[in-house]
From TrEMBL:
Gene3D superfamilies: N-terminal domain of ligase-like. It comes from the Bacteria. It comes from Nannocystis punicea. Residues 1-30 are annotated as: Disordered. PANTHER family: CAPSULAR POLYSACCHARIDE BIOSYNTHESIS PROTEIN. This is Phenylacetate-CoA ligase. Residues 1-26 have a biased composition (Basic and acidic residues).
Length: 518
């Protein structure tokens, strides 16, 4: 007698992975679901969070819809819950046998990358009609333009020459600020900023570094050029009260930052201690020069959680001094007066681009190196939006996804500096400022900063500022490393300086060509 075959066992109902954790109870603002296996956090609406928590408790579609509906005072359609579970499954948040953490991380990376790509594409589609309402874009964009790469590149000269054509007939509501760029390497450029736009984009950039994000809203100090915020607010002589705005204290630096009188040094150190900042946001040259002088005079400084460097290229020498003096990590950020903070270093050292507010493109300028010019499209700027804006800044693309929790974002391996802050080898090769720094910093022992000036086709002068721990015997090795990088025929002169002077904008440059200086 043969037995009948067993009926196939129904598949196990889907369930959330047991190790997932909720950051907080759902509120009107939503909730964060944390995946400890991959380090990622998922922001959910209150309704989504309640649905998933109810599903985790009951594991049944119909019961979940009914119970969650009562909790939310909503009529929950089962199809809505099924769509949510499908999205959750795509992120690897449902239990699946045999799936390891590496596979989960890659699945989440790809799913989140698709999400941000779709979001940016949607924002770009909405942006183009608004751009055509502005005189400049109405004149330069035709109705048939499709695909970002086919649209015209916007250069700085066009913005300067046609500034009024980038403005709407009526200014949007909210605070408006009229600013100008620093003009370190060219003419200064007028900029108008809506603080509503600013608040719509900047938090997303700083959230890409969890250490920085955790300190948002806390007290901090800022030290940068005498021209802050691009609005020519020179701070020299301003009182501490005048330099304090909310949690921020702007320190009273100056063009003579490398040779401050003792009284000014002691005042800055005292203000730093008394303000008790969680962190310092600073131009790396200014903060490194101040830190070196404070170290020489044994001035006590506060322990910081971290330092954020911005405004100009951060040398490995600057980072070395800041880490030594403040005993904390240093994170670099990239942005511009025209569009604010665009990218920030994560804890792994990569530069992550704000995936919500910007589209970035890397343009090969045929200089023969691995640096590329950065083009920026702003997606959240209602006032003075920029389409394929040629920044004049160079970056190196990353060759693989980052290992941090933001691996789905566009990333740069490094910032290379401004295109004009480059020198040329005798054979015509370009060495961007960061490429020069990768030669100088490993060989140097005890430098605060420097500038490599190209004086002729094969003649270079390294102007350097010794630090407290300067080792003069290391300088021949620095010269040899530069000659090797520049190639046959290169002559390198070494010039020790008592102080380095910034450009008229107040910013320092690590490299520049001055072929008229012979």
């Amino acid at each position: 007698m043969t037995s009948e075959p067993e009926a196939p066992r129904p598949p196990d109902p889907p369930r959330l992975r047991s190790e997932l954790r909720w950051r907080d109870a759902p509120s009107e603002d939503g909730a964060l679901l944390v995946d400890p296996s991959t380090g990622r956090e998922f922001a959910l609406s209150r309704a989504q969070a309640v649905l998933l928590q109810t599903f985790a408790e009951h594991g049944d579609i119909r019961r979940t819809a009914a119970i969650a509906g009562e909790r939310l005072d909503l009529d929950i359609d089962e199809s809505w819950l099924l769509e949510l579970l499908a999205a959750v499954a795509a992120l690897g948040l449902l239990a699946e046998p045999g799936v390891d953490a590496e596979q989960l991380s890659e699945r989440q990376r790809l799913a989140r990358r698709r999400h941000y790509e779709d979001l940016r594409a949607e924002k770009l589609r909405a942006l183009l009609p608004r751009l055509r309402e502005l005189p400049y874009y109405a004149r330069t964009l035709d109705d048939s333009s499709s695909g970002l790469a086919r649209l015209p590149v916007l250069d700085k000269a066009s913005v300067r020459a046609h500034f009024a054509e980038f403005l709407p007939e009526a200014m949007p509501a909210g605070e408006i600020r009229w600013l100008s760029t620093s003009g370190t390497t060219g003419e200064r450029q007028q900029v108008v900023r809506s603080m509503v736009d600013w608040d719509a984009s900047q938090p997303y950039t700083w959230a890409l570094n969890r250490t920085i994000e955790a300190a948002r809203g806390e007290r901090f100090c800022r030290l940068t050029t005498p021209f802050c915020d691009g609005s020519e607010c020179h701070l020299r002589g301003a009182s501490r009260a005048e330099r304090t705005r909310g949690p921020r204290l702007s320190l009273d630096g100056g063009f003579d930052i490398a040779a401050l009188p003792p009284a000014r040094l002691e005042q800055m150190a005292a203000e730093l201690r008394e303000h008790e900042p969680a962190y310092v946001l600073a131009d790396p040259s200014y903060l490194a020069m101040f830190a070196d002088q404070a170290l020489r005079r044994r001035l006590p400084l506060p322990r910081l959680r971290f330092v954020v460097t911005a405004y100009e290229l951060c040398s490995a020498l600057h980072r070395r001094i800041l880490e030594r003096v403040f005993e904390c990590p240093v994170f670099d950020a990239y942005g511009a007066t025209e569009y604010g903070a665009l990218a920030v270093q994560c804890e792994a050292g990569r530069y992550h681009v704000n995936p919500e507010s910007f589209v970035t493109e890397l343009r090969d300028d045929e200089a023969g190196d691995d640096a590329r010019e950065l083009l920026v499209t702003t997606l959240d700027k209602q006032l003075m939006p920029l389409l394929r804006y040629a920044t004049g800044d160079l970056v190196r693309p990353a060759d693989a996804p980052c290992t941090c929790a933001w691996s789905e974002t566009d990333t740069f391996a490094s910032l290379e500096g401004r295109a004009v802050d480059s020198v040329r080898a005798p054979d015509g090769r370009r060495l961007a400022a960061a490429a020069v720094d990768r030669v100088v910093a490993p060989a140097a022992r005890g430098l605060v900063s420097y500038c490599l000036v190209q004086r002729a086709e094969a003649l270079y002068r390294l102007e350097y500022l010794p630090a407290e721990d300067f080792v003069e015997a290391s300088m021949p090795a620095v010269a040899a490393a530069l000659r090797a990088a520049l190639g046959p025929g290169a002559r390198v002169q070494l010039t020790r300086c008592r102080e380095l002077l910034p450009a008229s904008s107040g910013k320092f440059r690590l490299a520049r060509a001055d072929l008229r200086s012979r």
